[in-house]
Amino acid sequence: MNILQELQYRGLIHQLTDEEGLAKKLSEEPVVLYAGFDPTADSLHIGHLLPILCLKRFQMAGHLPIALVGGGTGLIGDPSGRSTERSLNTQDVVEEWTEKLRGQLSRFLDFDSSVNPARMANNYNWLGDLNVITFLRDIGKNFSVNYMLAKDSVDSRIGNGISFTEFSYMILQAYDFMRLNSDVNCSLQVGGSDQWGNITAGLELIGKTTGNKAFGLTMPLVTKSDGSKFGKTAGGAVWLDPDKTSPYQFYQFWINTHDNDAVKFLKYFTFLPHEEIARLEAQVSESPEKREAQRVLAREVTELVHGKEATDSAIKISEVLFSGNVDTLTGREIEDAFQDVPSTEVSGEIALIDLLLAVKAAPSKRQAKQDIESGAVSLNGTKVTELDKVLQQSDLLEGKYIVIRRGKRNYYLAKFV
């Protein structure tokens, strides 16, 4: 199966220019391709995974990917998929975020391959020195306003207004493609479906200025079957930076995938062979309660992004919380596991009843006593029924933590300082 057939099987082709021509070129020689990532935050999020993994799939098939970080276009702002103008960031901020994104991208591609090494690029290297007169005469002259207004990224903004700054973004991205085509023979750009207008503008510019043949491929917008937005949780975006979204939280996002999305996401976000995906698809149909597809999906994607050690830790936390044996967790695992539960700092020796009040596990001493006597309270995974229990240093996990559980699902975290 060639790379286009592989992408087709996985549902990763939304739009493609000249499929026959591209298939022929891919079969004849290694093709240089690129995807762009603008530094609009200090981390990539899981919405970026499709284009990142698309580059990786092409590299595994013997082609030459370029990860382009938009240090230049990040100063302008892409109107694609937005109803309002972006806030402009300072150059210092964009430079800082550019370096962080370069570090994240470097984890996914093989830059040391002796056969088809990946490359990193920053479009500020050519956009930063671009003379405005040269740009308007040599580049802008190739685009009519009518052509630009017809693009969805611009047309969708006409009603609310669009600045000349963001209106010009399409031409800047087209210039990126032209430069990469001229400098390193890059002939394919891949991106999300919202980038179709920008990608085809690049093809237009290449054709007019060099006469070279180039291609564009977009992937579908990732959606969830229930209509909710992919990549969002109650806490916001799901980031690739472990300091913004912990590996445990990342793992939990995937483990909670709906049955209707599990197989689609296995195809999108993993490199599992077709036979394994077919087996898991059958499991979803025959034994959905086992949630094997979700467990495999969560393990595969978390390991891909965060590595095996962090993934093993995330799985351990999940199993511990299910069993209640929290005393086996490390301090870092406790912090990760209970990031989203009520957390309270306490100091010195404290009676259990007062602790339940302090962490708001009980509204009154009377209720706290009833909960303890009925066996509804556990400390660090052990049920406690002593009304006069006083917490000592020996009761703390890692010398600092008490994990309180009231009932089956209500967790609270006390940090002793």
From TrEMBL:
Its function, per the record, reads: Catalyzes the attachment of tyrosine to tRNA(Tyr) in a two-step reaction: tyrosine is first activated by ATP to form Tyr-AMP and then transferred to the acceptor end of tRNA(Tyr).
Q: Which residues bind L-tyrosine?
A: Y34, Y169, Q173
Q: Which one GO biological process term can you cite for this protein?
A: tyrosyl-tRNA aminoacylation
Q: Which organism is it from?
A: Paenibacillus rigui
What's its top-level EC category? ligase
- Residues that coordinate or bind ATP: K232
Q: Please report the name of this protein according to its UniProt entry.
A: Tyrosine--tRNA ligase
Please name the CDD domains in this protein's record.
Answer: S4 (cd00165), TyrRS_core (cd00805)
- Report a single Gene Ontology molecular function: protein homodimerization activity
Q: What is its EC number?
A: 6.1.1.1
Q: Which UniProt keywords apply?
A: Aminoacyl-tRNA synthetase, ATP-binding, Cytoplasm, Ligase, Nucleotide-binding, Protein biosynthesis, RNA-binding
